[in-house]
């Protein structure tokens, strides 16, 4: 690893944020250029290379844009910044760890991971309501609690006290979080909904769900000993309110001034709403237009549900990409900082990358980082998510819809197999192994594979087999389910009714507002590439395996061998009880693809509650089915080591590389066979033959008796060589 320090740089062929720079733009015109400058590679890394999920969120800043359509009275959402609309009419919604939808999905993944419960038994509904108004208010209450705590501490300290200044910084940060929503009506709606419910349902009885008017009182014993609650005199109530405001020491005033200073179009209603939310005062009996407030509540609720529905549908494809990137990095679980995976994101759609006018830019970049003896920026793997797969045939064509069924929608934006083919042709000379998966839906999940098998995946990949690039194509399956389609309903809340006895929340089914997320999934290629990138690191392997050579990367690690798959597991929770014997027999018979397994298994008496790897094959055909991905990786590694140590395949240096001298590279590899990441393992061998006439060196890599051929062109030496 002194020569090749990393074997896990991965390239993601996906658009994350169209407003950010992309690979094509940075590379620019390459006519007459063979290689990019070091400064250009540094610029590409500065904008597109990320080494953690947190860095990804900072550099690419995933964003949804929204604006209001007055003609339809709706909120419009788009992943591209709309043109022709003034900037001050567009709201940018950052999709980061503070976004309630993404936060809910992270929590759901972590909960499933910790519980290890299959999808059929997992209580999705318990976590889905995290995006309902009441859960949004829970987060706001937490911010409120922290603001009040810091403010009380701030007021206790003397001016100039360094600790007071530190607390002031924290207060400023908390106020910044709170104030971000002043101009965002959509963000204020949960506040307004909860505020009306709190005020109107303050006197609600737990037993009959009816509401009585509220008058603040006190408990006392009367002149004859009777127990009663009497109304607090109005002056006492006002004093109570004043005392409470004094205890806040002007915090209420701070919020009023902050709202007026920041908000572009302030209104008294929203200002009062902000103040009541962050500085609640004792409830005093005030005149409330109940009918108007109930109408407002139902209007807000309907609008919030409709807007949230549109938002989720718009943001879901972006969220699935974000989850994929997170899962790529999550697979690296080593505590020590070893060869950590890195991700170079093209930030351009695949069909744009493989246009005839753009392919030279990609090839020039790869030629720069993959065809030199400096392997710092070499790209070893690629990820292509969401290859389109036609729906299962056999659907009956109906002349007339008698019952409401699924609406036939255009398949969401995915990548064409033809685009993947062009990409594979382009990356083959640079030996980039491409992990790809088919579009995410209920048709490509563990459940689907458990019932229908892998035949349709094999059929879809037929056009990619028996090609010179087949060994670099790795189909990954099945995709992972975060929320199943049939369990993706989120109850927003119930409408409010005005009755003779006051107000109450309706229990009628039609008055319960619910939105359907329609399922959330993660492409299998993110997890597959993440796991393979992770086990390239010796530090990662040492977490689980005893015999690891710290000088070797994990290029020869065969995850299918022995109990390797049960030790180097994914971080994904099991989804189903397993595949039937017929399905497993089919997978074993075909030896096809990078297949994940959700089987019951144990290793050394410990139950495996994570998804494991069942097969790790490319589309290169052999006599026994499809070839293992590690063979191509070892070939790439040996070729690059050979190029470096022989000064670009010089004849005499090749002979030294393969000689029986104990100091030769081949001898060193043969002497270190007993490790899980040994480059040459038991049953392996390396042989070579030089054809003087054609100036070619044929290298036979023998893996457990199976031969893989590697061919390099020799640079002729000027002096005779003694063999």
Outline the structure in words.
The chain is an alpha+beta fold and 723 residues long. A hairpin with a 2-residue loop joins strand 21 (612-622) and strand 22. The radius of gyration is 32 Å and the shape is elongated. The model is unreliable at 204-209 and 718-723 (pLDDT under 50). It comes from Paenibacillus hexagrammi. This is Transcriptional regulator.
Distinctive features:
723 residues; elongated; nine-stranded mixed sheet; three-stranded antiparallel sheet
* Uncertain segments: 204-209, 718-723
Mean pLDDT: 86
Main β sheet profile: 9 strands, mixed
- The strand order across the widest sheet is 2-8-1-9-10-11-18-21-22
Number of helices, where a helix is a run of at least 4 consecutive DSSP H or I residues: 24
Structural category is alpha+beta
Query: Per DSSP, what share of the residues sits in E-state strands of 2 or more residues?
Result: 15-25%
Kindly report how far apart the N and C termini lie. 28 Å
The total beta strand count reads 25
- Alpha-carbon Rg, integer: 32 Å
Coarse morphology: elongated
Helix content: 25-40%
Give the oligomer, counting copies of the same chain as homo and different chains as hetero: single chain
Quick recap of the structure?
The chain has 723 residues and is α+β, with helices and mostly antiparallel strands. It is built from 24 helices and 25 strands.
């Amino acid at each position: 690893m002194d020569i090749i320090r990393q074997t896990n740089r991965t390239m993601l062929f996906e658009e994350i944020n169209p407003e950010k720079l992309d690979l094509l733009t940075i590379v620019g015109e390459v006519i007459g250029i063979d290689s990019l400058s070091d400064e250009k590679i540094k610029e590409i890394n500065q904008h597109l290379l990320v080494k953690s999920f947190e860095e990804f969120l900072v550099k690419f800043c995933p964003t949804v844009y929204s604006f209001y359509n007055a003609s339809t009275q709706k909120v419009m959402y788009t992943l591209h910044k709309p043109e022709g609309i003034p900037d001050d009419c567009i709201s940018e919604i950052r999709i980061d760890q503070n976004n309630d939808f993404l936060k809910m999905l992270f929590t759901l993944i972590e909960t499933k991971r910790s519980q290890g419960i299959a999808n059929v038994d997992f209580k999705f509904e318990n976590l889905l309501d995290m995006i309902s108004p009441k859960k949004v208010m829970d987060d706001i209450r937490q911010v409120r609690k922290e603001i009040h705590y810091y403010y009380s501490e701030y007021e206790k300290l003397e001016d100039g006290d360094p600790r007071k200044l530190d607390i002031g910084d924290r207060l400023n940060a908390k106020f910044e979080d709170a104030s971000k929503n002043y101009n965002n009506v959509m963000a204020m709606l949960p506040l307004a909904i909860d505020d009306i419910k709190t005020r109107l349902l303050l006197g609600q009885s737990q037993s009959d769900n009816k509401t009585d008017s509220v008058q603040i009182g006190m408990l006392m014993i009367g002149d004859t000993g009777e127990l009663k609650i009497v109304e607090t005199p109005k002056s006492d109530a006002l004093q109570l309110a004043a005392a409470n405001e004094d205890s806040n020491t002007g915090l209420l005033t701070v919020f009023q001034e902050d709202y007026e200073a920041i908000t572009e179009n302030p209104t008294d209603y929203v200002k009062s709403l902000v103040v009541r939310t962050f500085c609640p005062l004792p409830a005093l009996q005030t005149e409330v237009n109940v009918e108007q407030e109930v109408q407002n509540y139902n209007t807000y609720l309907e609008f919030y549900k409709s807007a949230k529905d549109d938002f989720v549908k718009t943001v879901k494809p972006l969220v699935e990409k974000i989850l994929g990137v997170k899962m790529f990095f999550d697979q690296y679980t080593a505590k020590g900082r070893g060869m950590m995976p890195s991700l170079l994101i093209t930030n351009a759609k695949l069909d744009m990358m493989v246009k005839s006018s753009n392919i030279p830019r990609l090839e020039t970049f790869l030629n720069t980082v993959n065809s030199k003896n400096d392997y710092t920026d070499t790209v070893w793997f690629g990820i292509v998510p969401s290859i389109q797969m036609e729906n299962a045939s056999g659907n009956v064509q109906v002349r007339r819809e008698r019952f409401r069924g699924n609406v036939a929608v255009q398949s969401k934006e995915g990548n064409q197999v033809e685009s993947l083919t062009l990409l594979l042709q382009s990356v083959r000379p640079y030996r980039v192994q491409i992990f790809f998966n088919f579009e995410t839906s209920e048709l490509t999940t563990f459940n689907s594979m458990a019932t229908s098998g892998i035949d349709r995946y094999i059929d879809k990949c037929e056009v990619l087999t028996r090609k010179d690039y087949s060994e670099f194509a790795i189909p990954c399956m099945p995709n992972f389910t975060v929320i199943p389609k049939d369990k993706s309903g989120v109850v927003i809340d119930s409408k409010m009714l005005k009755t003779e006895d006051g107000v109450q929340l309706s229990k009628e089914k039609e008055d319960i507002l619910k939105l359907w997320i329609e399922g959330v999934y993660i492409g299998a290629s993110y997890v597959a590439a993440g796991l393979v990138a992770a086990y390239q690191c010796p530090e990662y392997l040492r977490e689980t395996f005893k015999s690891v050579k710290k000088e070797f990367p994990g290029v020869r690690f065969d995850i299918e061998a022995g109990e390797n798959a049960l030790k180097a597991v994914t971080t994904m929770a099991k989804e189903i009880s397993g595949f039937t014997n017929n399905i497993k027999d089919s997978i074993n018979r075909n030896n096809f693809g990078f297949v994940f397994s959700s089987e019951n298994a144990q290793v050394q008496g410990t139950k495996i509650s994570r998804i494991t790897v069942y097969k790790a094959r490319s589309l290169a055909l052999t006599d026994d089915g499809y070839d293992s991905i590690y063979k191509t990786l070892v070939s790439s590694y040996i070729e690059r080591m050979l190029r470096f140590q022989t000064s670009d395949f010089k004849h005499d240096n090749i002979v030294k590389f393969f000689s029986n001298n104990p100091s030769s590279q081949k001898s060193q590899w043969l002497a270190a066979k007993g490790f899980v990441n040994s480059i040459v393992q038991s049953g392996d061998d390396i042989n070579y033959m030089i054809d003087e006439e054609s100036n070619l060196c044929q290298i036979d890599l023998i893996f457990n008796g199976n031969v893989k051929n590697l061919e390099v062109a020799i640079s002729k030496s000027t002096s005779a060589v003694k063999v």
